[in-house]
Amino acid sequence: MKITFVICLLIFGGCLAAGPDNQGTEFIIGFMENLIWGSNMLEMFLTTTANAGAKVNITLPLYNPSFHQTLTLSRGSIEKVELSVDLRGIGTELSNKAIRITASEEITVYGVNKETYSTDGFVALPVDTLGTEYVVATWTDEAEFMIIATEDNTLVSIKFPQTSVGVAIAVTYGGSTYNNGNTLNITMNKYQTFHAYQDGADFTGTRILSGKPVAVMSGNKKVNVLDTGTSTSSDHLVEQLLPVDTWGKEFFTISTPDRTLGDYYRVIACQDSTTIATVNLGNHTINAYEYLELNVNTNNFQSITSNKPVMVVMFGKTVGNPADGPNGGDPQMSIFPPIQQFPSDYTWSTVQTPTGDFTNYVVVVIDNSRKSDLYLDNVQVTSATWNSILGTSLVTTTLNVNPGSHSLYHSNPASTFMGVAFGNAQTNSYAYAAGMRMATINGVCTVSTAVPGDIVDNDCDGWVDEEENNGIDDDGDGLIDEDLALPPRIDGNWAAWGSWGSCSVTCASSPGTKQRTRTCSDPAPANNGLDCVGSATETGSCTVSLPCPIDGNWGSWSSWTSCSVTCGYGTESRNRSCDSPAPQYNGNNCTGDGEETNACWSGTCYPSILGNLDLCIDFSFRCDGTRDCDDGSDENVAIAGCVFCSSGAGPDNQGREFIIGFMDNIGTNNNLELFITTTSNNNANVNITTPLYNPSFLSTVVVSRGNIVKQELTNGLRGSGVEMSNKAIRITASEEVTVYGVNKEQYSTDGFVALPVDTLGTEYVAVTWTDKAELMIIATEDNTAVSITFPSTSPGTAISITIFSATYGNGDTLNITMNKYETLHFYQAGADFTGTRVLSSRPVSVMSGNSKVKVVDTGTGSSSDHLVEQLLPTDTWGKEFFTVSTPDRTLGDYYRVVACQDSTIVSTVNLGNHTLNAYEYVQLNVPTGSFQSIISNKPVMVVMFGKTIGSPADGVNGGDPHMSIFPPIQQFPSDYTWSTVETPTGDFTNYLVVVIKDSLKSDLYLDNTQITSASWSSISGTTPALVTATFNVNPGSHSIYHSNPASTFMGLAFGNAQTNSYAYAAGMRMATINSVNDDGDGLIDEDLAIPPRVDGNWATWGSWGSCSVTCGTSTGIKARTRTCTDPAPANNGLDCPGSGTDTTSCTVSNPCPIDGNWANWGSWSSCSVTCGDGTYTRTRTCDNPAPQHGGANCTGSDSETDPCNNGTCYPSVLGNLQRNCTRKYFGCKAGQIMCIDFAFRCDGQADCDDGSDEDALIAGCVTCPNSATTGTSNYFDLDQNFHLFTYIYFGIFYQL
């Protein structure tokens, strides 16, 4: 019965949840036909509850690809967008009239189809809530519906009801007419719209099925909803339909506000024998797609319940008499959500009439005990008239609201209620649910872990988020906190202002600005709470006088040095200097390192032994099984380092270099994919190249712990047929990484875990399935001799490989020499390469599998898939293995066990014992759930092949065949990091299968969470006892580990989809298989595991550093640090979360030094002399400002001079005064001659009567003792040689 039920749901579209609620980030909607009356536009009203606001884009993808409107919404605001009425559907047509709305945050969208006397609105549903089954609801006459496709190639089936009221259905499309009971099938592409209309008809009960999610609008072009006493006034009706999987069983009637005529309710069923119960309107039974119409009197508030999911639609009646509706009102239509879909928080918008505003209301239904904690527009509802709803503890009220955007919420998010928006006007009305949840409550439910507010029925009781997180069984089902609502809404409040920040200018005297901030954190808004009101930043003015710092900047990098080693992994480095420019004036030093290192590879390190220094043979002859040295030392384990069949090739599947390839697959529609992750706490810098195929190709990615990076590569890198090519892919990393390869085509996908170069070997044995077998060899070094020996016998078509003009069959050996990065690819239809031996002189990578093959068994289907694994070198094979089963399948699996030595005995619990020779295999058909051991006396390789699914009953999540190589128990790690795979069209259903000792299972951690609940199954024939379990995992990167690293276990990754599968070991060791501690071999600690994983923990904070400001009143920043050392992460432990640096504001008390600055120069003084050359002088003072607090004095002089000249200076003697001679004349002492020209003075000839002009005392004449001419005299230039002559004459003192 369970299987039949699942198939039914798959057919009828009710299996998956449509989405959370009516808020979303993408909407694809349409508008139906309306009666054109005047010139109006289509309208959309958009609002958001996001505190961050939302950026919204509106496009018409097919109708007008160039149309693009962008707007920004803020919380609580509403934006109206107008669109052309040409976007309305018309008649019956297939068109391109879809409207797409996308947003950066969740928004609410309401559509309004408005004409004079004909208006209605609807709440739009986001794309993630859409479904694939709907049932149309309309009134009788001018019925219409519109389907909007959201994806290409959507098959839509429209089945009209067998009977309908009004005119018989007759919809003509594509040249055919469809009547009652007929089905119209149509294929739609993304953004196409299909609109159906018929005058006089009623489409209620029309069923719409689609292959992919669609949006559906339903209603009437313009119709009157008549009753006794009503008028013929009509209105447009519209609602966006709810998918069937969101329908419910409990509803309530309310009344259109301010009317007395009552309302009609139509209750529509989706299943036969649906019983509908009311309080006083009778009980009724209807079948699928039939409906019950109830005429409910005004204020007849009562419950409507059903035994199966239904949809309830309210039709408000046409108002005929003003007494029946004082605010007027045409008919309106509203779809009611069931009680389980009631939210606890609404945001909605009113609508405008073509000529103004409606009278707007919101009708509320809530439990009577919880009505006191409602908040309308953030104000508690304290005054309302509440009416009881018959047969329930619920009450209802009607609240008047103003035009615009509104919010209504309950303080307890677990207290849900219904809100329906109404608007009445004289010739118009509207009605729609103010909001609703869109959880899947009508479909298959799986119990899941509760996440607060996830809008998921976690406990499968038909209710959504009904529990408070309070440790109480709120819903009385015996479970506590099993399906949690969000915590209560918390509105944000500002914390105190922080200190002022630094000035915006740091090195100039011009004014700047400083800021201080506050955070909305006292408390921070949470659970849809309001953001703080006002600004988080305040600005003030400031000045500074410090010189500008110059920050240092790095110069160019030097060239890379040579690799630090001559072989193996080393490092190369390069340097740079902080000199472009160097830091000056307290500028910052360069950030980052002056030295950079990178991993480098210098080729394989070969043993450096005594023989290398003496007699020599070619290194390729070492360990080749033939003695070339006389003493055989070239084949000695201790001397030559030879390893045979049981020695480890390397550590594990994590590494720093990988050289891999991809084999042929069917089709060329998809890229190849690499998934790369790391367990290193340091980021891994990864380079991906195709050295020979495209030497210029280089992709660089950075991988952090716990994350996964996908790299796509051209599918031209696949091997093709039989070819020698250059298709190697090289991956190198600065830290150890894990690499998974995925070869993906539609209906043909598989993946493999890549092995690093240091784990590769020189001997492999191929494993494939029968038909389309393929093999690829990738060389990692030049001059690699490769020998391929095909098995003597093989199932399927006989082997026949033609290459280099030669054909090789069963038992033949092909020898070839390959250079580094060359690839050799084999493919043969019908063949099976299992048992093919590959030997090489130097390490190679080998891929093995099938291009696309079905793994058939009795009852399996014919579906096929790509198979691939990277082969393990024979020196890593083991002797102890275990079988598991492909998850969620019942057909069982095949196992192939391959030997590398003769006389290998393979033992099982109940599948027989078998003896094999080298390169032979035994195939085991293991039923599902048959968990048992596979033991051998010599090393073997075990490969699992999942079978092709024939019937959905054999695999509930689908799945083609797959292939996986199992590691032996000795190669189990204790710690895995792996990634899931994506299908070409989406995600797989992903699993991890674990095998572990029963005594150790309690200490496993999946994604760092301890596994406490799992269904474990025993594995037969194991001592100590082993158990296995299967875990479902989400798409992405995952980790699983045991708290004790000595406790190893097996992890296998699986993925199932309807037409694809994958499987591979989640990880493996690639080491020497030795005895281990605690194994009773008489040795203690001879082979130690790493110590247990240690996650890092922060040490205590260090002391605060110096403040970034050293003086003044401005606020600076100081920092303190902590180290991840208490303890430090070790043994693959997690790094500390959070930051190692903490900052806070700081101030200092000492004032900043103020350097002195000169005031302006004073005025120039008078010339310093009254005659001859003198100076002007001016001064300035150091007081603009004066130096303070240790500031520097002004530099330079406080005075400044400039030359001046007041003419020739003449002696000022008595004669000049007594004789009244001017300055240019000499006054004689006595005589008739009073004044003579000053040039005649002391010229050796008396010009005054008394000869005083030649007198030494009176005229200042000086006779030169060495003069050669008698009577000739010279006088001192009084400006150059100033002598003092003093006269006392009539009491007057003169100074010359």
What does this structure look like?
Residues 120-414, 750-1046 form the IgGFc-binding protein N-terminal domain. Pfam families: IgGFc_binding, Ldl_recept_a, TSP_1. It comes from Tegillarca granosa. The protein has 1296 residues and is mostly beta strands. The protein has five helices and 84 strands. Strands 6, 9, 10, 11, 14, 15, 16 and 17 form an eight-stranded antiparallel sheet that branches. Strands 45, 48, 49, 50, 53, 54, 55 and 56 form an eight-stranded antiparallel sheet that branches. A hairpin with a 7-residue loop joins strand 79 (1225-1227) and strand 80.
Task: Give the proportion of residues in helices.
Answer: under 10%
Q: What's the pLDDT, averaged over the residues?
A: 84
Broad shape: flat
Q: Indicate the structural class.
A: mainly beta
Biggest sheet statistics:
8 strands, antiparallel
Radius of gyration, in Å, reads 48 Å
* End-to-end gap: 141 Å
**Tally of helical segments:** 5
Strand content: 35-45%
Instruction: Give the uncertain stretches in residue-range form.
Output: 1-19, 607-614, 643-650, 1074-1086, 1264-1296
The number of E-state strands comes to 84
Protein name: IgGFc-binding protein N-terminal domain-containing protein
Keywords: Disulfide bond, EGF-like domain, Signal
InterPro entries: IgGFc-bd_N, LDL_receptor-like_sf, LDLR_class-A_CS, LDrepeatLR_classA_rpt, TSP1_rpt, TSP1_rpt_sf
